[in-house]
Structure formats: structure tokens, C-alpha cells
Amino acid sequence: MDDVKNWLDQDPEVARTLPSKYFYDDAIFEQEKEHIFLKGWQFAGHKSKLSQPGQFVVTELFEQSVITACDNEGKVHAFHNVCQHRGNRLVSERRGQNNGLFRCSYHSWCYGNDGKLRGAPRSERMKDFNKEDVGCPAVKVEMFFGFYFINLDPDAPAMSTLFPGAEETIRNTYPDFDDLKLIVEQDVIVPANWKVIMDNSIEGYHFKLSGD
Fold first, then answer.
1. Which of 26, 58, 118, 146 has its Cβ near the most Cβ atoms within 10 Å?
2. What is the pLDDT of residues 173-198, one digit of tens each?
3. What is the number of helices (H) and of strands (E) in the chain?
4. Is the dihedral of CA 83, 88, 93, 97 positive or negative?
């Protein structure tokens, strides 16, 4: 990692880009997945799509799939999108609304919108079977300035701790923020390493300079 250290020590006025291997090395990408994406807060959905009982959204993050859902009391939960019987996915839609249950299409195991197992056919014949022990693993979830975010790291600090003052700044800039509603969603798939996208996003050409 000496090349990264040298890169970090550069004078910003004459800095060069990150060494090329960090854009194509599979081993580095695996480390980024584990330490950046799977331990960072990821966008799940706007509160307008998770405010009614039964509403849910599904977030795909590499090999992981997470359901964020609103239960009958209006509380939002997040849990892994996988039946605990044979590993079948419970839902494939990006978002929707159910009647309070996710039913696995394989053997009809049913889970509530909190991820807890509600029923499994003929499980009453199984010795020492306890539904309380078989729920979908929970995922950390919290709402931050009107949006729900999830984190696969159970020890992750709250977003308010990580970004102090961010919500206040956003609300000062957009005073009608609480009235926003999702109208349309579009995924843009770019066949490039994620750091290329981030580099492009902070490119100086994309900022308006004072006096322009």
C-alpha cells in the first residue's frame, strides 16, 4: 500500500490520480466491498414509500438482498431477503405493498413485515421447533432527513453521529423537504469502477464558480 501512502502525501495542487491498479484489482475491490460498502449506510427508500402498513422496498447490495418494510404499527424494519428454510428469496420486486406477510414461493413459510417467522407448514410436527428462533436476520435501519438507510454492520454508528449538522443544513436549503414524494425512480448502470464515478462527481468542471 506504499503507493497509496505516496498518493495521499501529494500536494493537492499538483496531485495525480490514484494508481491504476486500484481501479481494476479484484482483491482490492473485495476489500472495498467488505470495509466500505458492507459497513456503510446505504440508501433504501424515501419515507413516502415506507409510511403505510405493508409497504416495502428491496435493496440489492452485491450478493446481499435486504427488505425494508413497514409493519402494521407503522414501524419500519429491515432484514435479509431470504427464507430461512431453503434460502429462497422472499420477494423479487424493487418495491410494493403486501397484507402484512411475505410468503416464500418454495414451501410457503411466512414472515411478518418485521422479518419474524409467522408460520411454517407442518412445523408443529418438528421436534423442538420454535418460530422465534427462525426469523430473517435483522439489518440496522434508520431514517435520516426523510430517507431510510440500512447498514449491514450491526455496530455502525448512527448517521447523525457521522454527519453532524447535515440535516439542519439540508432543511435550511430545502425548507419544503418534508413534502417531497417519490415520483419516478431510474437506475443508471455505468460499466466502470465505482471510484471512477466518484472522481467524476467531484471534478472541478462540475461546480459553478463564484462570478460565473
1. 58
2. 888 888 888 888 888 888 999 999 88
3. 5, 10
4. negative
